[in-house]
Amino acid sequence: MTPTTRSPGSSPGDESPRDGDDMYDDDQPAEVNLNETEGIRLQKVLAQAGVASRRASEILIDRGRVEVNGQTVREQGVRVDPERDVIRVDGARIPPPRRHVYLVVNKPRGVVSTLSDPEGRPTLADLIERRKERLFHVGRLDTDTEGLIILTNHGEFAHRLAHPSYEVEKTYLAEVEGIIDAHELKRLRGGLVLDDGPVKPDKVTVKSRGADKSLVEVTLHEGRNHIVRRMFDAVGHPVRRLSRIRIGPVRLGQLAQGASRELTSAELGALLDAVKL
Ligand code: URA
Question: Which domain holds residue 78?
Fold first, then answer.
């Protein structure tokens, strides 16, 4: 285990409020306000992350439920660097204090997946409060597609999340024309060859079949242009309506159309794990 250990000169009581979230400016390198050479006591880090009170965090440590950089910590008073050390409670990643902004929006149809549009169409910027940080969106949805998009000012996170090699799953709910039969479902599940190469979904489930339409859930870990629409075109069932309802651990849930929210700690921790940050 290599949590940052306290330097010989530091005192256990030295817990100034310097390590609070509000000290972080976006896009600044990891700041010395973490008191890097000394680290911060693990129970304090857990309390600040909202895991439990300090006392309850000590109990978690006692019970062997806390891990730092892959090793269980049972000793009290261990100091860590919450920016760099990977901390887990019961296996779930506790994200570092937020130096960046991580938002998720539910993009309505008709909104373009950009933050400014020369043609003056509604953009993602219209869905969020004006911020001083320069945000960018992770991947795109077609203008006609609704659903989840993540916005952040954390460049490496965004880059990795959009990259197929990290295999973050995305789930779409598609309303398609006509009734998908068993043969077509098998074709979709088995994978299709599109103009730009093969696509093999992780999962395809028919949620319902109506008189002239089917509702189908598709999970993929890639995001080529119009990929879901092209898959359904290939089996003769054009998409009427398409929504992205999940990105890895982030679910659309009750987020209203046009609304946004911060990623939760659990979502952020799981996404950081997924993209190996
Ligand atoms: N697949 C599509 O066809 N469109 C999107 O916006 C996203 C995935």
Answer: 12-94
